[in-house]
Every structure is written in structure tokens, then in C-alpha cells.
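User: Can you recover a sequence for this backbone? Please restate the input before giving your answer.

Assistant: Of course. Working from this structure:
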């Protein structure tokens, strides 16, 4: 059986570089397991979105900043 070649737009394509406006709301509880699974298995599709920005609440941002500098005691 012959393999089929798929052609994707190059990164130089102006349509490819346009960012989509965010329009879907999703809970962190729904998002985190999917992102964690993609990270664990190093799925390439996740790499396509690493430069995307997400909007979070200021209290979650404060907690994440504190957690990043947290060092557990021995």
C-alpha cells in the first residue's frame, strides 16, 4: 500500500502565523490532566502551543509564584 504525503503550510506562510483569538473557556480541572499527559509522553502537538499565552486569575498567579519559589524542608 502506497504512503500518502500530507502537505502542511510552512511557518513562512502568513496565514500560519496568525494567532487565533481565545474563545473557549475551560476549567483548570479539565485542562491540566490533558496537558500533563501531553507533557509526559512528549506529544508534538503540545509543542505547537508552548508560545501561546493563557489568562489566569491574579490569586492563582500569586499561588503559582509562591509555589515556584517553595523549597520543601528535608
Amino acid at each position: 500500500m502506497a504512503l500518502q504525503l500530507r502537505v502542511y503550510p510552512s511557518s513562512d506562510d502568513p496565514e500560519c502565523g496568525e494567532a487565533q483569538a481565545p474563545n473557549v473557556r475551560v476549567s483548570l480541572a479539565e485542562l491540566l490532566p490533558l496537558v500533563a499527559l501531553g507533557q509526559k509522553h512528549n506529544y508534538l502537538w503540545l509543542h505547537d502551543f508552548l508560545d501561546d499565552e493563557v489568562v489566569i486569575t491574579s490569586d492563582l498567579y500569586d499561588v503559582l509564584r509562591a509555589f515556584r519559589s517553595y523549597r520543601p524542608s528535608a
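That completes the design. Residues 26 and 53 are 14 Å apart (CA to CA).
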